[in-house]
Design goal:
By secondary structure, the protein is α+β, with helices and mostly antiparallel strands. A five-stranded antiparallel sheet has the order 19-18-17-20-23, with no helix packed on it. Strands 3-2-1-13 form a four-stranded parallel sheet.
Length: about 675
């Protein structure tokens, strides 16, 4: 039997403060965590939802160096951007803090010292690359060289971004320091390690025996790590950005970001409780009382840190509770490709909020509907549009709008007094109770996609009820029957304002405004008398609006432009062909001609017919550049370079007397070669 807890502590992975938040983060972590937090609050349970920015680590120092600013500048910029985006999107953190805060530095330092004093670390000396010119040890990302796999000359010490191979710095060919450009040398350095292998036995019992209810992807990944055997893991590194190791003789060393970041959950809870002790109480009850249930919401790339490494840290310290569940999601792809921040292949939250004002719930709905709970899933703009238009507008919005409009039109915008209920009316109202059970069961088991679908199924039921009872017809002959139908339908609308609150908080608030009611608790879900007879309703409007094709096309075009920019950035020219003797080259006669006419060749998608003034008369040349010049008439008057002494060739029944020169771009398109300024037609090109 599952243990009953007095309270719940919800954490969500700390987003890294070197860039904005995108839809992959939202679908994987923040939307499901927010749904769960809102659900528990509606049930009246004691719960807090902790978030914050992860602000230490190498990627931040690399970005700062590339932009010529300090690491603090980088984390300040992105912390406030992320925090603002979350607030506008309705992610209802009780606190959203950061790991550069003073309270976090002290909490992390104290945590390290507690483990150090208990003898939980081992000291190890290893060799690491050192930049003698810059006089500092080099993190993997500060070392570049040639990839031993693909030959990319700009591979990093941890990964080659050209071929995706994971590397270690010593594998690089001709390594060099990004700081000075010099060749680094190997030098010994001392660090502190957490011996994970020491904790294997209890981890096996705790995870593999006591938590078989965890998601298969979480359980499976933990089992795989344990079966392979755990190794000691460094908790410090040589770096000048981070929390200094609080020991004498540890100058120039900071706590490794993987060690310091999860402690951010603890420090942020401390900050929350210190700022509002009357509401939240002492922080220790959230982290040290066995009656508290700890839930981590993360993506699958963080499973090992939250299920093995952080629990080992907590267990080694000795006074903390361990996570009861870690409902990690898989990854969300974008238009069939993996989301990539470095390639800008993402839908960024702050840009979405600007492009789709007032449509936070549309994205929340879609990301929940396609949540990668058991396997990777794909976001496409066409699916986003279809779910909005067909489900939010066509089902949920349509039902609510029809009920409110009919009530306003025929009953003076007041809840009508019902007559006798038919068996069909009663059966429909009974479904409210079944709805609550189905949604609760899914939410309690972290199946947010299915829970939202159950809520939407009830909106489907509402539309079916209206279609079968036809109040727009009964009003003509039986006003009492119509009153009963609309009374029933209005109770369904009130229930929808409750059940959609965790998923679509902005829309639920709008529904309450339409109904002129306050926020309802979860235990009202299933009630059939929420709205009393004669209760006056508010002014209603469309809950959702259709999203037109041109709006979606702009988003798709933005991604096309991104892809084109990426192709240009990574473009490598084709290898140069074999050398030819100079006297062979001299035989090629390249000249400049002025375009007199230009048109598409009939029945050809690629060919354009050019009529040129070549300085000696006119000549016709066919060129396969039609896809890149959709308005060929605009080329008239321009000058182009062409090979004048190429043997004529017949194509599509036309004789082509030469070849027009063009350059192939990185994206495969072609651009005509033109002289930088006009010359006399027939001029030779040397």
């Amino acid at each position: 039997m599952a243990k009953e807890f007095k309270r719940t502590l919800i954490t969500s992975a700390l987003p890294y403060a070197n860039g904005p938040v995108h839809i992959g983060h939202l679908a994987g972590v923040y939307v499901p965590a927010d749904i769960y937090a809102r659900y528990l609050r509606m049930k009246g349970e004691e719960a807090i939802f902790i978030g914050g920015s992860d602000e230490h680590g190498i990627p931040i120092t690399v970005k700062a160096r590339n932009e010529g600013v300090s690491p603090q500048d980088i984390v300040d910029k992105y912390h406030y951007l992320i925090k603002d985006s979350f607030e506008k999107f309705g992610i209802s953190f009780d606190i959203y803090s950061r790991t550069t805060s003073e309270i976090h530095h002290k909490t992390a330092s104290d945590f390290f010292l507690k483990l150090y004093e208990k003898g939980e670390f081992i000291e190890m000396e290893t060799e690491q690359y050192y930049d003698e010119e810059a006089q500092q040890f080099l993190a993997d990302r500060y070392i570049t060289g040639t990839c031993p796999v693909c030959g990319n000359e700009n591979a990093y010490g941890d990964q080659c971004e050209a071929c995706g191979t994971s590397l270690s710095p010593t594998e690089l060919i001709r390594p060099k320091s990004m700081l000075s450009g010099s060749v680094p040398v190997m030098r010994k350095t001392k660090h502190w390690y957490l011996p994970l292998n020491k904790h294997e036995e209890w981890l096996r019992k705790w995870i593999l025996e006591a938590h078989k209810e965890w998601r298969p992807n979480v359980y499976g990944q933990c089992k795989s790590w344990l079966d392979l055997g755990l190794q000691p893991r460094a908790v410090s590194r040589d770096l000048d950005w981070g929390i200094p190791v609080p020991l004498e003789g540890a100058e120039g060393k900071v706590l490794y970001v993987w060690f310091d970041a999860p402690i951010g959950y603890i420090s942020n809870t401390k900050e929350l409780c210190l700022n509002n002790p009357e509401k939240y109480g002492d922080w220790e009850k959230w982290w040290k009382d066995p009656e508290t249930r700890l839930i981590h919401f993360i993506g699958k790339d963080n499973i090992v840190f939250h299920c093995i490494i952080f629990p080992v840290m907590l267990k080694a310290e000795g006074s903390f509770i361990l996570p009861d569940n870690v409902p990690a999601n898989e990854f969300l792809n974008l238009e069939g490709e993996k989301i990539s921040t470095s390639r800008n292949w993402a839908v960024w939250l702050h840009e979405y909020l600007e492009d789709f004002p007032g449509k936070q719930d549309v994205l929340r709905y879609v990301l929940t509907a396609i949540a990668p709970e058991t396997k990777d899933n794909d976001f496409t703009w066409k699916d986003f549009q279809a779910r909005n238009n067909n489900e939010l507008v066509g089902v949920l919005g349509n039902f609510i709008n029809r009920v409110l409009v009919l009530t306003q039109k025929h009953f003076d915008n007041k809840v009508p007094s019902p007559g006798a209920f038919t068996d069909y009316d009663k059966k429909t109202l009974e479904e409210l109770g079944n709805l609550r059970k189905a949604v609760e069961k899914n939410l309690d088991n972290f199946r947010f996609r299915e829970a939202q679908q159950e809520a939407m199924n009830f909106a489907h039921l509402g539309n079916k009820y209206l279609a079968e009872t036809e109040p727009w017809k009964t009003i003509k002959s039986d006003r009492e029957r119509t009153a009963t139908i609309l009374y029933t339908a209005l109770q369904m609308v009130a229930n929808l304002s409750i059940v959609f609150e965790p998923f679509l908080p902005f829309s639920a608030e709008k529904i309450r405004q339409f109904l002129q009611i306050d926020t309802l608790s979860w235990d009202r879900l299933g009630d059939t008398d929420i709205l009393p007879v004669s209760h006056e309703l508010g002014k209603s409007e469309l809950l959702f609006e259709k999203i037109e094709d041109e709006i979606i096309e702009r988003q798709i075009q933005r991604l096309r432009d991104t892809k084109k920019a990426n192709e240009t950035k990574t473009y490598k020219p084709a290898p140069v062909k074999e050398n030819v003797p100079f006297d062979v080259f001299e035989k090629i006669d390249i000249r400049v001609g002025t375009v007199l006419e230009c048109e598409k060749v009939p029945k050809s998608d690629k060919l354009l017919r050019f009529l040129l003034d070549d300085g000696q008369g006119k000549r016709t040349i066919l060129s396969g550049v039609a896809p890149w010049y959709p308005h060929p008439e605009e080329l008239v008057g321009k000058q182009v370079c062409f090979i004048a002494n190429l043997e004529p060739k017949k194509m599509r029944g036309l004789l082509s007397e030469g070849m027009i020169l063009s350059a192939e771009n990185a994206d495969g398109s072609f651009t005509l070669i033109e002289p930088s300024k006009n010359v006399v037609p027939g001029s030779r090109v040397f």
